[in-house]
Every structure is written in C-alpha cells, then in structure tokens.
Amino acid sequence: MASNLSVEPDTPYGYRNWQALTPAFDKGPGARARLGVLVLTTDMSSEWDITRFTRLDGVDCFVSRMPMALQANLENLKALKNEVVTATQNLVPWAEFDAIAFACTTGSIAVGPKELQAMVQSVKPGVAVRNPVDSAIKALAKLDCRKVALLTPYISEVNETLEDYFIDRGLELTRKAAFNLAGDPQIDLVDPQCIIEAGLDVGSCDCDGLFVSCTGLRTAGIVQRLEDKLGKPVVTSNQALSWATLRAAGIDDEIDGFGRLFHI
Which of 207, 210, 212, 173 shows the shortest CA–CA distance to 195? Predict the structure, then answer.
C-alpha cells in the first residue's frame, strides 16, 4: 500500500522563520488491512455492525456513502448502479485498499455482482470486491448448509428476488419469513432481541442453518447467542460480508463471539 507523499522543500520563501522538521512515516491506519465499505446514505446499521465484526489490530474500515431512496423497492435498488463509481471515487482517493465491500444484500442482486465488481475496479483496479449475497452463499456452503431457513425484513418483491437468487444457486429454502418493512427508516430500528426471537422461530424447522438477510439489521451483538440457542449455523448479511472481505484482504484470524463462520 505505497503512497506518494512529499515534503515541501526548505526554502526561505516557504518557511521564513519556521523550523523545518523531518517527518517519519508508517503505513497509516489499516496497516494490516485497509477495507473500503460502500454504504447507503439511509443505512445506520451496516457501518456500525461491520466495524464490530472486523475489529482487529491493524485492520480498519473506511466508508463512502451512496445515495438511496427511503423505500427499499426493486426500482430504487436498481438505481444504486448509478452511484457505485462515484462512491468508490470518494473512498480516500489517494489510498490503496486490500478489499472493498458493497453493503447492500438485495442491492447486490439488483445491480448485478459482476457489474458491481467491474464498476468498483474501474476506479480501484484489481481490488477484491465482496457483496453480502454472494458472501452469504459462500458462507452457507462452507458451513454445509444446503437446506436454509430465511429471515428478512423486506417487502414481497424484494423477498422474491432474493428467493429466486438463492434457488438458482442450489439452495433449498425450507422456511421463509419477513418483517415486510419498507426501508431503512424501519429496518435499522428493528430490536436485535426481536431478531433473536424471530430467528429461533424460523430456524426451528428442518434446515441445516439460518440466514438473516439485510445489512440494515444489527446482528454483531446477537449472532453468537442466536446460533447457541438454535444449535445450528447462523449466517447474517453483515457477518458474511465482513468475513468474506477480511479473507479477501488476507486476514485469516479466527474470531470468537461471531458464530462458527469466523472459525473457517
């Protein structure tokens, strides 16, 4: 992660009576791994959650925001494709990143994972790009979860899009349940205890594991408790995205307290 830093030369005109000091440089924040995170302007939860999942010495997250309407419907989610390049350009323009995370689960589907990667890499060539939905699918596979219970906060058209995406990739959804919330102003305020209770209910079916979808749901503080109570693997959007982004950045630390996934 090289940088092109320069120091103004010591000239009579530049300093007059100022003493010229010689600075010493280190690698700056994110010395082990520098993670970029693209977050919706409406979302209070994903940055809060992801920074907890990735809290390791020398690992730091840097956030840039993408304009998003208050209603999380398919039309507005598809419109995010118009914001990805600018948000990436605003992500500490002079810095190099080890990986960049796009923090919207169904927005990843609406924009298209390949298109999303191409847009980010048009600004940051070669950087690893991760999104929540494909990170969740990879996490579920690593945990041997093919039969999955699904809990979401979304409205019907968004739920159906996510359902189709999972089924097309070989997952069997044994039970599905949703809070049917319109967007982040409601989703971000869902009580984590409510997520535990709903997860225990939905995940009690014949399934290999539970997926809690949406980066707007706060799960860093509950995923371990939910997994312990359920007795099955639990994967959440922010957890899977954080895990996949860390691994893409070369951080293989096992982390306690965030479910089985962080020991893979």
Answer: 212
Q: Which of 153, 121, 130, 137 is nearest to 33 (CA)?
A: 130
Q: How confident is the model over 97-126, as pLDDT tens digits? A: 999 999 999 999 999 999 999 999 999 999
Distance CA 172, CA 184 (A): 28
Cα distance between residue 223 and residue 233, in whole Å: 9
For the question of whether the overall pTM of this predicted structure is more than 0.90, the answer is yes
Q: Is 12 helix (H, G, I), strand (E, B) or coil?
A: helix
Of the candidates 46, 207, 15, 199, the one whose C-alpha atom is nearest the C-alpha of residue 135 is 46
Radius of gyration of the chain (CA): 20
CATH of span 134-241? 3.40.50.1860
Q: Within the chain, where are the H helices?
A: 12-15, 46-53, 74-78, 84-89, 105-111, 113-123, 132-142, 156-168, 184-187, 192-202, 223-230, 237-248
Kindly report, residue by residue over 11-65, the tens digit of the pLDDT.
555 557 888 899 999 999 999 999 999 999 999 999 999 999 999 999 999 999 9
DSSP state of 231: T
- Residue labelled with tokens 């398919």: 74
Q: Give the residue extent of every domain in the chain.
A: 33-131+248-258, 134-241
pLDDT of residue 17: 81
Classified by CATH at the fold level, domain 33-131+248-258 comes out as Rossmann fold (3.40.50)
